[in-house]
Amino acid sequence: MASLPQPHHPYKVMAVYKFASLPDVEALKAPLAEFCCGKGIKGTLILAPEGINGTVAGTPEAIDALADYLFATGPFGTRLMGAEVKYSFADTAPFLRMKVRLKPEIVTLRAPQVDPNRQVGTYVEPEDWNALIERNDVVLVDTRNDYEVGLGTFQRALDPHTSSFVEFKDYVEKHLDPARDKKVAMFCTGGIRCEKASSYLLSQGFEEVFHLKGGILRYLEVTPPEQSRFQGECFVFDERVSVGHGLELGNATLCRACRHPLTEADRGHADYHEGVSCPYCKDDAAKHAAAAERQRQMDLAKKRGLAHMGDAALTDAERRRQAKRAQAERSRQANKPD
Question: Where is composition skewed (Basic and acidic residues) in this entry (predicted)?
């Protein structure tokens, strides 16, 4: 289990997934939701017959209790032992409510022949990843969607240009060949998509398939910046938007209209209007109108000294980004040559 030693933060964040046989998911949903709500935990957990996936946050004591519930004392028994778990910490709650959802798959690929419980590729530890991806005989593939890749990726990685993981199958069919691509290395945010992607490639006749254990997040957590081959920031699915090395808060923000992640360059574009539109949704008038009204309500709430409902976490994240930028500017000025 990856854990950052930051106990002084009031909220502990748990990202967890495990492919495991859970034919009784319908019976598991209500007890799990009741347990989390009773502990004040918020976030989303997805249950499917193939396993569990999700990210939640709460007090350190609550999250520790949830870990015990999932892996030992709860109705899951020992089925989730050995799950991929990552812990981080936050100053404010990154989620607004608790949801436990039932789905056919914990990560949707719609490939019935794929079974990560039966076969997956070879796990590669973050410490060994650089040596692997620098080999000329290895094809490196980013299995994430295009908006995630746009914020950051590994050097030399191929971008499948997918808008959903289901499209990954088409990419493989059109651009990868088991007769030509003898060694394929893949990576994703936390590792879960690569479990299915590597299993899928093996089912299609690819011989040697590797994937980054713990995903980009684990790599950024343990790899010194000067040794890193990851360029940019890693998109995360909460109000932090992105993280960098050491899992520090990144500089990306979300467009309030289309929810596309935005870099500093995007925010400097002529089509960016704070709270209303961005270069990725510039022609969607309906989204702009809804976002403009939401921004108006936020501005009114701000004038009255009130927090707009649902925006506390986002506002705090932006405050921390601004503080980070100010600190970087002070450091730059202090180190300027005379």
Answer: 316-338
